[in-house]
Amino acid sequence: MFFARVPMTMTGVTLTLYVVSGLGRGYGAAGVVGAAVTLGMALGAPLIGRTIDRYGLRPVVAVCGLSSTAFWFAAPHLSYEALVVCALPAGVLSVPAGSLARQILAALVPADQRRAAYSLDTILVEASFMIGPAAGIAAISGLSATLTLSGIGTIFGVTALLIFLLNPPIRNEDELAPTGTARPPLRSWLTGRLLATLLIAAGTLFCLVGTEVATLAALRSHGDVGWTGLVIAVMCAASMIGGIVHGAVRKSLPQGLLMLLLALLVIPVGLVTQPWWLLMLVLIPTNLVCAPTLAATTEAVSELAPPAVRGEAMGLQDASTRLGLAAGSPVVGFAIDHSSPAWGFAAAGFGGLALAALGLVWSLRRRPVRTPSLAAAVRARR
């Protein structure tokens, strides 16, 4: 699953550079293609997850693997307009590596050890983001666009084939439902608490992507763009360290409190945006909480969703995080354009808190009020 995620982290930068350099379009036009892919992934994730719940892993991986491979092989031969049209369905039918990894871990790992497993998974996600974008930039800069995009398609196809052949379980023996068992109704498991968890997840990704945008803007405003790679690498390393600690401790903080720390620690970063090395240092505390927050989110979703709908629930988690990503960049970018990079950090933190607070309010509004019935009162008196 780690190797399946690496090409996913390469897609954003390679598509952007291809549209700008290969097709001669602007960054705004490149953003439209990226937004179409992201929107497709957000819309498709719950549907793909529900299909996995019903038909199993192999049929879905086969269809998604063929679709992803075909899109990336065709991309360098398409016009810009055709690329935009194909980007949305390609996003819908992309290989759901993230949600699949979480489902497989839930099936293979006992419940009392899942915190460590999800933390390890999040650490590997950070590692893939340290490798993928840099490899994508190096490939499309040193090789032809056709070879680079086709290579990404090849990696998607090979990893999908490996998953298909390995066919890892998505349910353990205790969770296998008998044939003909009815699917739990949506309202029985999509509770206020689960919706709150998903909104907190969206707020987390809003905060994270906003922090990256503000960091890049701060470095650029002071002529320190050349240090961007090192700063991002240190941020990822801090997140990995936090994930190791989160997975090793016997009891960790809940998702909501971790999200609160993540946002509160990023808000004052704008007070120290230069020199670059000081900015890098003050970004470490908030990134230490990054991987733990993501791991705690997955742990909460796996606890709240019944095994029969785990794929759809994990797909909803993917959708919420991608919507948070899609909202964070433009909102924080707007704040930076109309003020300064320092206010971008504040916008990232407060925006994430707003989404998390919305989730908390929703959960309180949906929580049923428990009142003892007359029959229960009579039985209690007896």
TrEMBL record:
<dbReference type="InterPro" id="IPR036259">
    <property type="entry name" value="MFS_trans_sf"/>
</dbReference>
<dbReference type="InterPro" id="IPR011701">
    <property type="entry name" value="MFS"/>
</dbReference>
<feature type="transmembrane region" description="Helical">
    <location>
        <begin position="225"/>
        <end position="245"/>
    </location>
</feature>
<keyword id="KW-1133">Transmembrane helix</keyword>
<feature type="transmembrane region" description="Helical">
    <location>
        <begin position="55"/>
        <end position="74"/>
    </location>
</feature>
<feature type="transmembrane region" description="Helical">
    <location>
        <begin position="80"/>
        <end position="101"/>
    </location>
</feature>
<keyword id="KW-0472">Membrane</keyword>
<feature type="transmembrane region" description="Helical">
    <location>
        <begin position="194"/>
        <end position="219"/>
    </location>
</feature>
<keyword id="KW-0812">Transmembrane</keyword>
<protein>
    <submittedName>
        <fullName>MFS transporter</fullName>
    </submittedName>
</protein>
<feature type="transmembrane region" description="Helical">
    <location>
        <begin position="122"/>
        <end position="141"/>
    </location>
</feature>
<feature type="transmembrane region" description="Helical">
    <location>
        <begin position="257"/>
        <end position="278"/>
    </location>
</feature>
<dbReference type="Pfam" id="PF07690">
    <property type="entry name" value="MFS_1"/>
</dbReference>
<feature type="transmembrane region" description="Helical">
    <location>
        <begin position="27"/>
        <end position="48"/>
    </location>
</feature>
<feature type="transmembrane region" description="Helical">
    <location>
        <begin position="342"/>
        <end position="364"/>
    </location>
</feature>
<feature type="transmembrane region" description="Helical">
    <location>
        <begin position="147"/>
        <end position="166"/>
    </location>
</feature>
